[in-house]
Amino acid sequence: MRSFINSSVFALVLFVGAAAQAQTPPVPPVPKVPPVPRTVRVAPTAPAFPGQRTDTELRVAAEQNVNLKFCISEGELKVNGWDRNEVRILVRSGRKFGIRVLERAPRSGNATWIWATPTAIEGQTAAQRGECLSGDSVEMDVPHGATLNFHGRSATTSVDSVRKVSLKIVEGNISLRNITGGISASALQGDLIVTNSSGSLSLDSTTGNIIVYGLEPIESSDLLKVKTNSGSIMLQRVGHRQIEANSITGSLQFEGGFLAGGIYNFKTSNGTLRMLVPENGNCTVSAAYGFGSFNAAIPVETITENITPGGKNVVAKIGTGEACNVTLTTSSGRIQIVRLEP
User: 40: how many CB neighbours lie within 10 A of its CB?
Assistant: First the structure.
């Protein structure tokens, strides 16, 4: 009897074990992890041309009316005018450069035309050397009567107290002060600020704001031309009698007096035109707008008002309207004439 019970118990254990084994899925095998390859540390590559990143300072005797041309690929550029008959250039943590004297004054032998360009290094091709200065910063001291002609790729630029400037920067803000003989400046990606300068001025920015303050012509025919594709324009205390200002997308503000004999053209495709002028002016105003409005907070007399499917055109006069002509045009935006407080 006991033998029969033991046999039954043993059979039951085998049955339960077999059933449990049938219901429990087999455990998947543990995947083999491939060995982690040993990290190979590569030492930093030495400069291809030793001495490329260094501080370099050069000086050259120059006439007050010296012409200076150069290119800058990167860095912060600062140019200041001084009373010395000398050009000083300092490049900090940058490429070595040289100053080539292209012309000299017959009597003094001082430079009248110079070119700052990178120095050739042994084993370096002309393409590798390029023509542009570069460094953490580039500082220049030049005579007050100097004329600068330069362009750059990526440079925050500041020029103060020279005679004339012609420049084009791809990327970076530009600040120009106390330029006495005229400016031609272009900033493709950056703001452009000009203060206390004179002469004919052409200012252009593709994507940036343009701000000018305290400008005066040298001759009555000097033109102030300002244009930005995407940005605002602000003109304050401008003495030019011929002004062309155009913003494709952005507001435009003029603050100052309309002068006798002046021809003023202000235009924006999409933005507000705001004129802050004294109420005792004397100009004829032609305002054309599509989707927007025309408002005057100073006394004006409407001469004509035409409404067409394409927009509205209002001709009005401030005072007798005989002294100057002002044209205001916007496709989509407001036109405002506001009283300028004395």
Answer: 5
Helix (H, G, I), strand (E, B) or coil at 310: coil
Q: Count CA within 13 A, CB hemisphere, residue 279.
A: 10
How many domains would you assign to the chain? 1
- pLDDT surpasses 90 at 37: no
SS3 of 25, please?
Answer: coil
103 in a structural domain: yes
Does 225 fall in a domain?
no
Residues 254-275 as b/e (b if ≥16 CB within 10 A, e otherwise) read bbbbbbeebebbbbbbbbbbbb
155 contact partners, CB below 8 Å, separation of at least 6: 72, 73, 74, 75, 76, 77, 138, 169, 171, 172
Give me the count of residues in the chain: 342
Closest CA to 222 of 181, 281, 258: 181
Confidence band of 18 (pLDDT split at 50, 70, 90): very low
Note whether 206 and 248 are within 8 A (CB).
no
